[in-house]
Amino acid sequence: MNPSELAVMADAYYTLRQKRLTLSREVEDLKEGEKEMKRVLIKHLTEEGVKVIGGKVCTVKLVPTKEPIVRDWDALWAHIIETGSTELVQKRLGVTAARERFDVGEELPGVEIVDGDALSLTKS
Predict the structure, then answer these.
(1) pTM (2 d.p.)
(2) CB atoms < 10 A from the CB of 87, how many?
């Protein structure tokens, strides 16, 4: 590709990325609205003692759940280390923390940093 074709592609990339970011913001707004409606429904169904309510397009049923909440991370980590119960946590590396350690020369067992490329976009 010649430079002018690359410039056109860069503009198209920027435009497409902006559309995605706009849609992502809209999705986040919708998620917040959905979360609030869910909260209000649960609150009122619970207060009214209603387990099921039906509208024109759906039926909502209040289903009891048990949600784990960590109150003492130190105690939980000690348990995980002592018992080897690593299935209790999601296996995902903190990218920023790993990069910071590698930047100061610290090695992480089982982890390597590989070279890659990224794009930096600045609106003209």
Answers:
(1) 0.65
(2) 8
